[in-house]
Amino acid sequence: MSLLELHAVSKRFGGLVANQDVSFAVEASQIVGLIGPNGAGKTTAFNCVAGYYAPSSGTITLDGRTISGLAPEACARAGVGRTFQVARTFTSMTAGENVLAAALLHQKRVAVARVEALRWLAFVGLERLADRPAGSLTISEQRRMAVARALATQPRVLLMDEVMAGLNPSEVREMVAVVLRIRERGIACLVVEHVLEGIMPIADRIVVLDRGIKIADGTPAEISNDAAVISAYLGDEA
Amino acid sequence: MNRRLAIGLAALVVVLALPFVVTDPSRLNLLILVLMAAQIGVAWNLIGGYAGQISLGHAAFYGIGAYTSTLLLLKFGLNPWLGMLAAGATAAVLSLAFGWSCFRLKGHYFAMATIAVAELVQIVFTNWDYAGGAVGLTLPMNHDGWAWLVFAEKRPYYWLALSLLLLTLAATVLVERSHVGYYLRALKDEPDAARSIGIDITRYKQIALALSAFFTALGGSLYAQKELYIDPASVFSTALSIKMSLVAILGGIGTLLGPVLGAVVLTTIEELTRALFGGSGRGTDVVIYAALIIAIAVFYPSGLIGAYRSWRQRRRARSAAAVSREAAP
Amino acid sequence: MTAEILLQTLASGMLIGLIYALVAIGLTMIFGVMNIVNFAHGEFMMLGMYSSFWLFALFALDPMLTLPLTVLMLFTFGVLLYRFVIRRITDAPMVSQIFTTFGLMILLRGVAQFLWKPDFRSIENSWVSGTVRLGEIQLGRPQIVAGIGAIAVTLAVYTFLHGTKWGSALEATAADKEAAQLMGIDAHKMFALAWGIGAACAGAAGALLSTFFPIFPDVGANFILLAFVVVNLGGFGSIGGAFWAGILVGVIEVVGGLLLGPQYKMAVVLVVFLGVLMFRPQGLRGKA
Measured between alpha carbons, how far is C119 from C216 in angstroms, rounded to an integer? Predict the structure, then answer.
């Protein structure tokens, strides 16, 4: 039994089928990349795992426990952490307070949470920015802060939605280092990414979606040589 | 921190000493009105400022508070001290129903729904004979003293209003510094992200609303004990709902002392307009009131405190720039 | 309660409901295009009523005659209001938006009271006064004309939206502002148009009401609440929804008054409203 399992998950919005019969698994200490052309249904799958959508059919389990259909806050408590495509920083707070708010999930004492928050900020290399208004951080810093924030909820699996988009090469390297450190801690990572040079080198497995359907599931090497994957991407560019 | 504490203590001393200096009853009454306006503003701020749910029907809780303690007194002889607590508790419990029906609405629609609820409550009380209907209720003046919270002179009401304000402020500080405070700010800033870190946003909005309703109701009870007469028009009025929110917005929504500042400024403006234009009954003061609301909403949505903070930030930026200009050769 | 009385009630409920629909159409149009709830919408209606009244009182011009003029004046007022006030808060935080239109509501009521005093006015002996007998039921002529007028204005708005270039542009902006802008549509012009039409609808409703409803500065208070209930039931942004929901609310109101007494008319509507909010928040027609 894997840590996170999607069993034949489908999601329909009226007539539009965003995900169809998608199944894959993520193990602890594993980095799984979720890639595919635009509109493939990657973020929809994310939202199903994190509780923002309930699948139209199929189930999602975490450690054997069904989490599909749970509200987002319940999924968070169950051990699903996530970041968003747009950073969604709490702008009325400092960077430290953003992470503090997340650390409050497991114990409600503010003083203790503050110490926890600093630890996680240090984990992503942002401890010197703890007292800065969160809105004043750069995009790259806000992304890493969002990762720290999600980590502070002590998740079993972390969903990262395009954390490397729009970053310059050195920022991509910083983010890659963070993701690797997360894996070292035993946390499973499910990463949606367009920046292939960021995810392909570090992923243990890659799942490829195209127009709502899973078309490939294997190691990065296998995926790069998969005909269906290549045509899905080329077809998208044509 | 020490300087702030010193200023705070000094202000407290001044505030405590005021009723010994101001002896004219109508002037003293004015100060009491400021304290009462500040108190309901601080109570409103818990849901409107910290949780970001703009309620424009908060008078519903004020009136429920006034009526609960008064009815308990008139029908069951319950001491107003206990009656006040019962009033707060009743409002808090009713706020759960209020929230359950309205919290799924966002922003503007929530605000409009609060107006609908307040209107409904007013209609109920206006037609409820047991509660005096449109005629209202009169409180007896057969005690004098702290045991029954009725006083012949104004000064004790000042202490009462001040204590209630300090109590409400203390509650706000406790909330601000607890996990509830952080959760409220998070759900106000980014509700979806708040949920992703495990915050049940409906639950915490309910908590903020229940606290706000509790303290607003206490304010209503105080009003009843002071005026010794309540009717639906006076305790459920739209004007009252407007005042509660305006006081917070004017001073600084979401800040601790914003509503206090707002109450001082607003009451001053009210008195000035009444002195200059009042008596004609033509409602000139309403027009000025309204123009003030619009001006703040359009130009200074963070209120006076917000405007002051941006001014200070700009000054700091300018002097920092000046210093670096001097430092560079 | 006889069938006659019920029929009478339903008929008068439908007629007043048509007026509610018209007011609500204006409100839902503003919302649909710019996501702002106009708390001052009842005051557009109030101004329409006073416009009719003063033209009648000062120049002996019948409200039916001056209706087009009232509509034009309110349209202009709506556009000017957008240009000088609302335009500043289109991207402002929600608190600003709410308090701006809320402040306008209070301002307009206060100005009306200042200029025209709080006295109740009414229009007597207009062209449409009197009653009409339709079989077993008796209805006021002003009410019937108002109902017909409301339908006419609704059809005019509908035709405008679906049959003209400007109307399509407005619908496009409501559907997707950014996409519309990319196609060359000026969002601010569309917003101004929405406010103009919205105010005109409410003003028309006011003019139609003026022939049989009391006119006073705070008259907008109940109507904004009713309009909001209608918009909620009909689905935010839906003109058709507002139309049918308006009629429904009118009927609910009068039937409620018949069953429980006139002082509870509003309460019945509000209870139904809160009930819908709790159990079907997307309205009767809308998607969630």
Answer: 6
- HEC sequence for chain C: CCHHHHHHHHHHHHHHHHHHHHHHHHHHHHHHHHCCCCCCHHHHHHHHHHHHHHHHHHHCCCHHHHHHHHHHHHHHHHHHHHHHCHHHHCCCCHHHHHHHHHHHHHHHHHHHHHHHCCCCECCCCCCCCCEEEECCEEEEHHHHHHHHHHHHHHHHHHHHHHHCHHHHHHHHHHHCHHHHHHCCCCHHHHHHHHHHHHHHHHHHHHHHHCCCCCECHHHHHHHHHHHHHHHHHHCCCCHHHHHHHHHHHHHHHHHHHHHHCHHHHHHHHHHHHHHHHHHCCCCCCCCC
The values of phi and psi at residue A60, to 5°, are -125, 130
Residues A9 and A70 in one domain: yes
Query: Using CA atoms in the order A64, A66, A67, A70, what is the torsion angle rounded to 10 degrees?
Result: -160
Shared-domain flag, residues A227 and A163? yes
Query: Whole domain around residue C222: which residue ranges?
Result: 3-279
- Rounded to an integer, what distance in angstroms lies between the CA atom of residue B67 and that of residue B72? 8
Taking the C-alpha atoms of residue B274 and residue A200, their distance in angstroms, rounded to an integer, is 73
Return the residue matching tokens 């207009």: C126
Q: Considering only the beta carbons, identify the residue of B179, B193, B254 that sits closest to A104.
A: B179
> Does A211 share its domain with A223?
yes
Q: Write the DSSP symbol of residue B48.
A: I
- For chain C, the chains sharing at least 3 beta-carbon pairs closer than 8 angstroms are B
**Unique residue bearing structure tokens 């200042």:** C114
Q: Is B321 helix (H, G, I), strand (E, B) or coil?
A: helix
For residues A163 and A217, state if they share a domain. yes
Q: Is residue A25 part of a domain?
A: yes
Distance CA A192, CA A48 (A): 14
The boundaries of the domain holding residue A147 are: 90-154
Which three-class secondary structure state does DSSP give residue A26? strand
Let me know whether A25 and A119 are in one domain.
no
- Across the interface, of A91, A97, A105, the residue whose CB is closest to B198 is A105
**Contacts of residue A214, Cβ cutoff 8 Å, sequence gap at least 6:** A21, A22, A23, A24, A207, A208
C151-205 pLDDT, tens digit per residue, is 999 999 999 988 888 888 888 888 887 788 888 888 889 999 999 999 999 999 9
Estimate to the nearest angstrom the gap between the alpha carbon of B317 and the chain centroid: 34
The residues of chain B scoring below 50 in pLDDT are: none
Contact predicate B281/C217, CB 8 Å = no
What residue of B is the nearest CA neighbor of C37? Answer: B108
Q: What is the pTM of this model?
A: 0.89
Domain count within chain C: 1
Which of A134, A154, A174 represents a domain boundary (last residue)? A154
User: Which of helix, strand or coil describes residue A87?
Assistant: coil
Q: Do the Cβ atoms of C3 and C245 come closer than 8 Å?
A: no
Residue at a domain's end among A105, A138, A154: A154
ipTM: 0.92
The pLDDT assigned to A67 comes to 94
> Considering only alpha carbons, which residue of chain C is nearest residue B254?
C95
Interface test with A, best of B174, B179, B184, B196 (most A CBs within 10 A): B196
Residue B179 CA to residue C97 CA, distance in Å, equals 30
> How many beta-carbon pairs under 8 angstroms link B with C?
127
Please indicate, yes or no, if residue C84 is contained in any of the structural domains: yes
The owner of tokens 């430290």 is A96
Mean pLDDT of chain C: 89
